[in-house]
Specification:
single chain, 314 residues, alpha/beta, 8-stranded mixed sheet, 10 helices, 8 strands, 34% helix, 19% strand, globular
Length: 314
């Protein structure tokens, strides 16, 4: 069985690569190049970050392959502590580390002889949308940013879905995390969040849970490295470090927000779009939900992504 949820295109080559981020963590990535690629010339590059809990063998690989078919150098990577990237304990997440992973990817592609350092863009899917924006706020080597089905993980952790957490709710969660830190300090066994893949679902499952389950827990999207779980104590960092504080500083570099018409996560993209300075664009995909834009190539607006990066990476 293939390690990937999609077939490799005859029009691209895929190479497994690795490099270290500034924390010394070895990042596992796949480099996609167009077939008959001319390494003697300088090319535009696009870096793709996976959904929160996802890995490069899933949606981000699909995006990288399609962008390579359109002539871009494309890199899909596994986040630190996850997938085939290194780092212990496994399945830790961190706003600083996951933002750093984008800059480390820029380090890698920007030192390839066939990449123009002034023509590097990023695509962030789901949670990586927030990390991609946060990276671009301080890493000016990123010349254009696109997000797809964006989640602002810091906001989601601190405020709950659609900002539904009260201060009492948040304090209760933080108290539980504090107790968990004591437990893990004493027995060195990190506890993961609940409902990891494979996620059980049926006709009674809430619509959002079912949407994720139908991807991560069926042959459509299942991958053994994509548990969709992180260490419980990771939430503390996200609650304390907002990702999009300096989004206006990305201007005059452009941001493209892509979201499904029916996505439960629409408010993240809509609110970030309002916060961002020009140039910015909001692209709404008709008849699409949140997870549809992970892998349904008939819905994903690759023509839009191609024109956005072709126009803005120059």
């Amino acid at each position: 069985m293939s390690n990937y949820i999609f077939e490799l295109s005859d029009n691209v080559t895929r190479k497994s690569v690795s490099y270290k981020n500034r924390f010394g963590i070895k990042i596992a990535a796949d480099l996609y190049l167009p077939k008959n690629f001319d390494e003697s010339k300088k090319h535009k590059a696009v870096i793709i970050g996976a959904p929160y809990g996802g890995v490069k063998e899933q949606g981000s690989g699909i995006y990288a392959q399609n962008m390579a078919e359109r002539g871009f150098v494309a890199l899909a990577f596994d986040p630190s502590f996850n997938g085939y990237s290194s780092g212990e304990p496994r399945h830790l997440s961190s706003p600083d580390l996951f933002v750093e992973d984008f800059s480390a990817a820029v380090d890698y592609v920007g030192t390839r002889s066939f990449v123009d350092r002034n023509q590097i863009g990023v695509i962030g899917m789901c949670g990586s949308g927030g990390f991609a924006i946060s990276a671009a706020q301080v890493d000016r080597r990123i010349k254009a940013v696109a997000t797809v089905s964006m989640y602002d993980i810091s906001r989601a952790q601190r405020n709950g879905f659609k900002d539904s957490l009260t201060e009492e709710d948040r304090n209760r969660i933080l108290d539980e995390i504090a107790e968990q830190r004591y437990a893990e300090f004493e027995d060195n066994t990190p506890v993961l969040t609940q409902r990891g893949a494979p996620i059980g679902f049926d006709e009674h499952t809430d619509p959002i849970g079912r949407e994720f389950g139908e991807f991560y827990s069926t042959p459509r999207g299942y991958h053994h490295n994509s548990l969709t779980q992180f260490t419980v104590t990771s939430s503390m960092s996200f609650m304390n470090f907002p990702l999009l504080t300096y989004i206006k500083s990305i201007s005059p570099r452009p941001i493209l927000f892509i979201m499904g018409e029916h996505a439960h996560s629409r408010y993240f993209s809509e609110d970030a779009y309002e916060l961002a300075a020009n140039p910015k664009e909001l692209c709404i995909v008709p008849n699409a939900g949140h997870v549809d834009l992970y892998d349904k190539t008939n819905l994903i607006p690759f023509d839009k992504l191609e024109s956005f990066f072709t126009e803005n990476l120059k």
